[in-house]
What does this fold into?
Amino acid sequence: MKDFSMRANSVFCFSAWLALSACSHYPSAIDQHFGASVRDVVQIQTANPQQPTPTQITATSDGQSAKSAIDRYQKSFDVIPPPPNVFNIGVGSGSGTAP
It folds into this structure.
């Protein structure tokens, strides 16, 4: 009985050590550079990194042309496009002969 208790205690201690060792954190080479590729790609894709702040941007169009552009945009939604006919998708022309 004492031998079983000693083995059970050893198994428990080893299991606890194994479980707690999974929680330890050693920075790997991957962790040290985590997210670097995303930062590099964003920096490459930025057209003008020294762009002016929004307060420095000047308006290049007048109010009348902007209003007409907004009106044209909103009128484009007045006519709803007809739904596509989904029953003829993948259907051949019908001119072939049946086997």
